[in-house]
Design goal:
Blueprint lengths: L1 H12 L3 H6 L1 H13 L18 H14 L1 H18 L4 H7 L10 E4 L11 E6 L2 E12 L6 E7 L5 E7 L6 E3 L13 E12 L3 E5 L3 H8 L5 H22 L2 H27 L5 H25 L9 H14 L4 H11 L7
Parallel strand pairs: 1-4
Antiparallel strand pairs: 2-3, 3-7, 4-5, 5-8, 6-7
Helix pairs in contact: 1-4, 4-5, 4-8, 8-9, 8-10, 8-11, 9-10, 10-11, 10-12
């Protein structure tokens, strides 16, 4: 399946990446291409239909999607995360009901709980009620509107724990979604916000209750895992450099691509080794995530330099990859990742 996925991404998705970045209908077609190939629930347990890919294959897939199209990578990972959250959740009836259908387009589901990372008073609250929970507040970010049928929202309970549950990804009397946001990158993935007023989240659609601070601990575990999107973006930049080298027959461009590709390989190997060694956050893992982010930015910048003035066109691949590098810089960013990234980007500065 991995070989077939890479073939689809390189032959059908990558050549149309600029269109996917600006056209939701084209992006929807690419997403359904993943659905048709059974590639939308790759971590689903075997008891619910599999394929339960090993972590190494799954991260290779995520890297390859990001290499082909940042918009598609950003969109599909919302659903992949929803599958994982449901599979690891406590609602066994919900698992049996929904997981068998989540590999295709029948139960495409997004996520909307990034606000739980915010310090200070919760902006999305839940109160226990007979048969479920009453939800009030805001969802500042929810990607996949019009693509996904449901969204898993997260809300904070009085004791600091969080309830996660399925909600409709279309406006109702209790949930009002905004128009799609104007974004510098990946706008076609239809990211919206929402206001929630007395929405009833029934026990039947509750995915799980997580203890206080769960999302921060989960982010710590995923410090290196998220880096593979940046690695894919870096590889996309190298692809552009090699294309420019072929057009201009310039040895210097070939040499630059080879140097960057070698560094990408080393970074990837160290990311993989660090994740296998431990799930605990370490300074090494933070440095590796920052390295992957730095690589995405440098490879995108090198793609611009190799392409010359044409890279200033909004429909040039180097322009799109530069914007994608920005997104992968801040995706699932914690304060520790932010500081590690800034430390790496400023390491050559001096006081003179």
């Amino acid at each position: 399946m991995l070989d077939a996925a890479i073939e689809y991404l390189q032959s059908s998705v990558a050549p149309n990446a600029n269109t996917l970045d600006s056209n939701p209908e084209a992006l929807s077609e690419a997403l359904h291409g993943l659905c048709d190939r059974g590639l939308m629930a790759l971590k689903r347990p075997q008891e619910f239909g599999g394929p339960a890919w090993p972590e190494s294959d799954f991260r290779t897939f995520q890297e390859e999607v990001a290499r082909a199209s940042g918009a598609l990578a950003f969109l599909q990972t919302q659903h992949q995360s929803a599958v994982g959250l449901i599979a690891k959740g406590s609602n066994e009836d919900l698992k049996r009901e929904i997981l068998p259908r989540m590999h295709g387009d029948q139960e495409l589901t997004g996520i909307a709980f990034s606000q739980l990372r915010r310090p200070g008073p919760p902006i999305t609250r839940a109160e226990r009620a007979p048969g479920g929970y009453i939800i009030n507040g805001s969802l500042p970010w929810a990607t996949g509107h019009t693509f996904f049928r449901h969204v898993i929202l997260g809300a904070t309970l009085e004791d600091g724990s969080s309830v996660f549950g399925l909600a409709p990804f279309a406006s109702t009397e209790t949930i009002k979604y905004s128009p799609p946001m104007r974004l510098a990158a990946m706008e076609s993935a239809q990211t919206v916000s929402a206001e929630i007023h007395n929405h009833f989240l029934a026990d039947e659609v509750v995915v799980d209750i997580k203890p206080p601070g769960w999302i921060l601990r989960n982010d710590m575990i995923n410090i290196t895992l998220q880096g593979f999107f940046a690695i894919g973006c870096a590889r996309a930049g190298v692809d552009v450099i090699r294309h420019a080298a072929g057009q201009r027959d310039r040895h210097a461009l070939v040499h630059a691509a080879a140097l960057l590709d070698s560094e990408i390989s080393t970074c990837r190997q160290r990311l993989q080794a660090a994740q296998i060694a431990s799930e605990e956050t370490t300074q090494e893992k933070l440095a590796l995530r920052a390295w992957a982010i730095d690589l995405a930015g440098r490879c995108a910048h090198a793609a611009v330099a190799a392409s010359g003035g044409r890279a200033n066109s909004t429909d040039h691949p180097a322009q799109r990859i530069t914007r994608e590098a920005m997104v992968f810089t801040v995706s699932a960013q914690t304060e520790a990742i932010q500081l590690a990234t800034l430390d790496r980007l400023t390491r050559t500065c001096n006081s003179e």
